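Many introductory courses stop at the sequence. We go one step further.
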Amino acid sequence: MAHTQDPAVLSRIKLLLVDDEDRFRTTLAKRLAEKGVAADAAASGIDALKIVKQHPVDVIVLDIKMPEMDGIETLRQVKKMDPEIEIILLTGHANIESAVEGMRLGAFDYLMKPCDIEQLIEKIVSAWETRTARQEKAMKNGIRKKMAHWQKHWSRSS
């Protein structure tokens, strides 16, 4: 596991913050940037889906309670578009049931708002490492299958 304060790791994470509260979203983005984590931001689930369609995203920090499309529905839609994106749910409302439902639907983890910035960064890095390890494993498995295929092909032709 990488150290959570490693600037080389923090700068590689493609993060998306999704929260309908402008002040919270901009303050959180600024605090994360001060720690070395750059983030795109969306004010709604609908905006988040547009960003996910247009840009690669590794990790999403997603508020559960939002108007129009709530965080749980946004989570469902993101996972349909790209099941590899890791999602950390935030709730400012003591709504553990929604957080548990989100975990069941594939969220990486959840935190209560307001959350400690260091704890959030730790979760973001952990989510990114999980995604990266899964991608590397899939790539290695793909390479192994191709090598096995070519080894069979070469052994028949010799």
